[in-house]
Specification:
The complex is a heterodimer. Chain A is mainly alpha-helical. Chain A is built from 3 helices and 2 strands. Chain B has a single domain, classed as Alpha-Beta Complex (Amidase signature (AS) enzymes), CATH 3.90.1300.10. In chain B, helix 4 links the parallel strand 2 and strand 3. The longest helix of chain B is centred in the last third of the chain and has 21 residues. The chains are: A mainly alpha, B alpha/beta. At the A-B interface, helix 1 and helix 2 of A face helix 10, helix 11, helix 12, helix 13 and helix 14 of B.
Chain lengths: 98, 497
């Protein structure tokens, strides 16, 4: 039986950039015990001799002609922006202070 | 008129019996009358649809050559971008977003003069089997408003069954076209992976997602399939090959000499008795139409569900990283001095619902170092085994068949607190996505015990989509002659306004 503690879930939530209440963390931790048991069944048949499949189509390096086509105007590209300034996306502070 | 098939509507438009504006208005009136009860639509584009219909009428009046479905209305799943029209994916994180571009499916619909009525409800980011995970409230099954219409494309299937639209677009990652079709008595087709462009389809699990047609008849689904399918340079995973001749197949319905493989593992225990009754009856009808019924085995299908609930969450944890509150969509907590990371954390807390968070966390775990091989890696191996099962089975048959779902529509709320029970709905539909092949669900009748629709699933090898339409058309014709009228003629009337 695999289980994830509340703190394990908190760490995953931090990696996934989702703020979570203590109640949510505890609920997810409880649910994951059941869910992980169910999905761990894949290990029963996944032998070393089986090749993995990541994608249904065996595609490699798909190219298209390098032709200039119309693209979004700055106004269109910014049309859904939560905030903008001087034809750019305005975002919260990314770097630390000094 | 609104109970006609799309093909019948197209014939009446061609004959000049009705205009597209009139036909579109009839559907908008129907939506206004019944959608407060059904809640199939998240957005109804009254002006846009009527304007598009007027253009189609003008083209027809000018004597232009029209495409087969020109002027017929359609409902679009809210996972597809349409320029200037709200696209939410059933999520609060995209509330109010109006995309600046059309998805390729929408471009193809517009090029075929198919009139887009509006956007249909869905489980948030297509994660669910009941449409209960929509941030905007559930959709109700028109057969019984207390029941689910399937999911994730429950809005599209309910719109068809409620006669709000004769055609709809769905997307199918683990059954989101076929399972809603099954529980609403409609037809839904997941084409071969790569058959329809994913450009502008908001990504959930990119190696599994596939858009496809939803309709009330097999021929209507085929007509819509040919309208939306084809190679697209904007989607590097779209197949560069001719579109399978699905309309010709749907018109033929000749199954003489075809071998139909019944999947031993997708029947029996866990399947409701009325589902099995209708499935067995359909097999008898197909045999009577000249098909040969054989049994095939797919021993690894029992691992498909487990593999799916690792692969899909893993891919979604990566795909949904784009919702970062920076360029579009919701932004929460952007106060003076707040860091970008804190804004992301707060936005994603408020913007995502419970099931989406659950899957992002599960995917983050399955991909994390130390667990990757045990979970995601093993799931990818199961994917190989499932594909091999299909390949072996298709050596013995032309198509494979099963019930689409283990049960008929369940009650809203019945499974919403039990993720595992909810995931089991997709047990028969998931293998198709894992292998990237085609799958269709069409109505097989009502389960005797609850008088609710049962779906019959047909699976065909990659790029042999026409085989599903041959078998689907044969079964549909046999059932129609048995019933004397389409299954949806038995649906209880909606009160309306």
């Amino acid at each position: 039986m695999t289980s994830l503690s509340r703190d394990d879930v908190a760490n995953l939530a931090r990696l996934a950039r989702i703020e979570m209440s203590d109640e949510e963390l505890v609920n997810l931790s409880n649910e994951f015990t059941v869910i992980l048991d169910a999905v761990a069944r894949v290990q029963e048949v996944a032998g070393a001799d089986v090749e993995p499949t990541s994608h249904p189509l065996p595609l490699r390096n798909v190219f298209r002609p390098d032709v200039v086509v119309a693209s979004l105007t700055p106004e269109e590209a910014l049309s859904g922006a939560p905030a903008q300034e001087e034809s750019r996306f305005r975002v919260p502070q990314i770097l630390g202070e000094e | 008129m609104i109970r006609n098939s799309a093909a019948e509507m197209a014939a009446k438009l061609n004959a000049g019996d009705i205009t597209s504006v009139e036909l579109t208005q009839l559907h908008l009136d129907r939506i206004a009358s019944v959608d407060t009860d059904v809640h199939a639509f998240l957005y109804v584009n009254n002006e846009g649809a009527l304007a598009q219909a007027a253009e189609v009428d003008a083209k027809r009046a000018a004597g232009e050559k029209m495409s087969p479905l020109a002027g017929v209305p359609l409902a679009l799943k809210d996972v597809m971008t349409q320029k200037g029209v709200p696209t939410t994916c059933g999520s609060k994180i995209l509330e109010g977003w109006r995309p600046p571009y059309d998805s390729t499916v929408v471009t193809n619909l517009k090029n075929n003069d198919i009139v887009i009525l509006g956007k249909t409800n869905m489980d948030e980011f297509a994660m669910g089997s009941s449409t209960e995970n929509s941030a905007y409230g559930p959709t109700h099954n028109p057969w019984d408003l207390s029941r689910i219409p399937g999911g994730s494309g429950g809005g599209s299937s309910a719109a068809l069954a409620a006669f709000e639209a004769p055609l709809a677009i769905g997307t199918d990652t683990g059954g989101s076209i076929r399972q809603p079709a099954a529980v609403t008595g409609t037809v839904g087709v997941k084409p071969t992976y790569g058959g329809v462009s994913r450009f502008g389809l908001v990504a959930f699990s990119s190696s599994l997602d596939q858009a496809g047609p939803c309709a009330r008849t097999v021929l209507d689904a085929a007509l819509l399939h040919e309208a939306i399918a084809g190679h697209d340079p904007k989607d590097s995973t779209s197949i560069n090959a001719p579109v399978p001749q699905v309309v010709a197949a749907a018109k033929s319905g000749d199954v003489k000499g075809m071998k139909i493989g019944v999947v031993k593992e997708l029947n029996g225990d866990g399947y409701q008795s009325g589902v099995r009754t209708r499935f067995e009856e359909s097999l008898e009808l197909l045999a009577a139409a000249g098909a040969e019924i054989v049994e095939v085995s797919a021993p690894n299908f029992e691992y498909a569900l487990a593999a799916y609930y690792l692969i899909a969450p893993s891919e979604c944890s990566s795909n949904l990283a784009r919702f970062d509150a920076m360029r579009y969509g919701l932004r929460v907590g952007d106060i003076d001095g707040a860091s970008a990371e804190s804004v992301m954390n707060l936005t994603r807390e408020v913007g995502f619902g419970r099931e989406v968070k659950r899957r992002i966390i599960l995917g983050t775990y399955a991909l994390s170092s130390g667990y990757y091989d045990a979970y995601y890696g093993s799931a990818q191996k199961v994917r190989t085994l499932i594909t091999q099962d299909f390949n072996k089975a298709f050596e013995k048959c032309d198509v494979m068949v099963s019930p689409t779902c283990p049960t008929t529509a369940f009650k809203i709320g019945e499974k919403s607190n039990d993720p595992i029970a909810m995931y089991l709905n997709d047990i028969a539909t998931i293998p198709v996505n894992m292998a990237g092949i085609g799958g269709m669900s069409l109505p097989a009748g009502l389960a005797p015990e609850d008088s609710l629709p049962v779906g019959f699933q047909i699976m065909a090898p990659a790029m042999k989509d026409e085989r599903m339409y041959l078998v689907g058309a044969a079964l549909e014709a046999a059932l129609l002659s048995k019933w004397g009228a389409p299954l949806l003629s038995q649906i209880p009337a909606l009160a309306g306004k």
